[in-house]
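Weekly modeling sync, notes
Attendees: AB, CL, MP (scribe)

Item 1: holo prediction request
CL wants a bound-state model with 2-phosphoglycolic acid before deciding which constructs to order. AB pointed out that an apo prediction alone won't tell us much about the pocket. Agreed to run with the ligand included and paste results into these notes for async review.

Input as submitted:
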Amino acid sequence: MARALRPVIAGNWKMHGTLASARALAAAVRAGAEAAETRAEVVVCPPHPHLSAVAEVLSGGPVALGAQDCHALPAGAHTGDVSAAMLADCGCRHVILGHSERRAEHHETDGIVRGKALAALEAGLTPILCVGETAAERAAGLAEEVVVVQLAGSLPERFCADGGILAYEPVWAIGSGRTPTEAEIAAMHAAIRRALEARFGEAGKATRILYGGSVKPGNAAAILRLPEVNGALVGGASLEAEAFLAILRAAP
Ligand code: PGA
């Protein structure tokens, strides 16, 4: 087991909310994080149009701002996209990359995710880079192999040395209310750690590996105390301040 890494509890708000609800949620998370006695790092990732407003609400507090995607290039004719530097300029410190919804809906390959991660690091952002198998891949006994291949293709060379964060998110667990067993989560996180150490050495030991996929207040404590689980990436439960804060308080 790696030395006790500082846990990360990150909320992925996906495509939900209004400017007003984003401000209110951010304010409630900030107040709760200030009151919580936690050593965890807290991050919220609103949709792009809400970033600046949420940045104002979070300014000077303990909750960091993240985005949900960025382009691999610094600028140019890319209608609808945003660059990592733009996110940093809005006050972001993190960006979720390679989420399975983007891999599926926007056909993002490992190579594309790798380019985005490099751009994020160059802009001074911390990527929260997602990997995970589908239900069919797990049923075929290929879960670890699929994830190890995703890691090899998605992580740029400087990822671990520059503090990148990983999130293991089984595709079938996202938004489904289903989670792998504790033994399955522990086995996958151990496999990810082995792959990181083999490629990145010491830096691979210090890289946080989050679990994501139907994390709720009821299962958070059990998941967060598993070996090599260094935090959680939370979707649905991050849209309610009380649920998200309960998960935060469950962090070791
Ligand atoms: P969920 O989503 O917590 O709603 O399962 C997790 C994610 O997609 O990051």
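Recorded for review: Residues 2-243 form a domain with the TIM Barrel fold (CATH 3.20.20.70).
Action items: CL to compare against the apo run; MP to circulate these notes.
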